[in-house]
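chain below, 426 aa
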Amino acid sequence: MLNEEPDQTGFSRTTSSIMTTDFGVNWLLGDPRRGISPLTDPFPVRADGSRFDVPTGNRLGVMARTGRGYSFSDYNRPHARQQRWRFGIQRQLGSDMMIDVAYAGSYSDRVGLSRVLSALPEQFWASGMARNNDIANNLNANVTNPFRLTNFQSLASSHPLIYQDMSTQSFYTSSTIRKNQLLRPFPHMNGLTDTTVPTGEVRTDALEVSFQRRFARGFNLNVSYTRLRDDEADTYLNEFDPLPTWRESNDGRPHRLAATGIYELPFGRGRAFARSGIVSHIAGGFQAAATFEWQPGPLVNWGNVFYYGDLKNINTGERSLDRWFNTSDFERVAARTPAAFHRRIFPTRIDGLRRDSTNQWNVNLQRDFRITERVVLQLRGDALNIQNRSQFSDPNTTPTSTDFGRITSQTNTRNRFIQVQARLRF
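prediction:
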């Protein structure tokens, strides 16, 4: 893997030296009051005779990661693969127009996903449409920590380096541990995740339509439309699920329309009208252009909530910034929402419920001033997002919030942007 580096655990270490314990009345490193910089001796001799913490390297062996949690990439995994296909037909219309219609598809598998290997088994999780505090309280209860360092006193003499390393971790020094930690596989790891499990899949199907009018008689136009279906198995709804769940992807949009056009005003030298004279000097040399793009926004992501109605009713009703979706039938009382260790009962995304769409026009106007036969001054003005349209962010999807269903922020950092430039061509 060219974009991943080896795990460097144990081969780098930080030493922190205390400069003062009384806000500078007395200094443990140097003495700035007498002009002695702390950097003169940044690592003074400590009580054990050492100056700094030496990296352990590989001397901890298999104990290097225990208690710290570990997320790793399996370098022996099969790599992702993709099959793609496309076929289409083109038709020329007249001497300067063309239309193209095509179907494009792809299928990818063995896509790397992150999966928790220390997942709490399914039988311990709550289900149903009612909060279960008993399960949450039981699994989060503190019990005696069997990994406490006092249970491994023999390591102090048999493996002093391992013993010293364990003494720096709260996982081993705490007298208690959460009950759910002991019910998981590999409880001594304090979390174990494979970040590249090759179980992901992606399927896309797209209808692509484009129209082109080649530049002729001072006019050019390109219009393209894509209808896309993009589904992927890219997430484990519950950490104990054996396989990921299919859902509509946010890496594509179901519709996209884009257009660009250029128009040279037919006045001035080399144009159809007013090739000379005062009108040529006033109106000649102008060119206007515009681009347009439209596409729906990404699907709104949801946490695990209680909803008592029909999912089809969520994306209904009049839409506004204060009511982006139908907020009825959600559980709004915090004391009755899903507690910890409640399996997923609400989808991560709702069909058709999307963030604000992209709908933007950009225009420019330029004019060439011919100074001599070989020297031309070009002035150009651009207006990006000429409608001054805000791009709004996601609606609030936390039912217990007073802003539930509302949009309170925007994603674009600026609205209309105007720039002017000059260019001398010779």
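The chain has a mean pLDDT of 92. The radius of gyration is 33 Å.
thats it, cya
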